[in-house]
Write a structure and sequence with these properties.
The chain is α+β, with helices and mostly antiparallel strands. The chain has one domain. It has three helices and two strands, in the order αααββ. A hairpin with a 2-residue loop joins strand 1 and strand 2. The longest helix has 20 residues. The chain is flat, with a radius of gyration of 18 Å. This is Reverse transcriptase domain-containing protein. It comes from Ancylostoma ceylanicum.
Length: 76
């Protein structure tokens, strides 16, 4: 956990972005919630992540010509 926090702090400094972490307590998360409601919510989150990853790209300029590159792996 400490290594993850150190990496998050380094990324925050490098990219000037606030960290975004998610912790889910699965032990208590499902004791009073309908399973179908949880599955729908999780499917929505997966869909959002897929859309975000699908649209990921970087752009570099070589010899004054912009080049857009689709990102297929790595941290987005």
């Amino acid at each position: 956990m400490e290594a993850r926090q150190n990496r998050t702090n380094a990324e925050e400094s490098e990219y000037k972005l606030p960290p975004c972490l998610l912790f889910v307590d699965f032990e208590k998360a499902f004791d009073s919630v309908e399973h179908n409601a949880v599955l729908r919510a999780m499917n929505d989150q997966v869909r959002i992540l897929q859309e975000t990853m699908r649209e990921s790209h970087t752009e570099i300029t070589l010899f004054e010509r912009p080049l857009k590159i689709s990102m297929q792996r790595g941290v987005k």
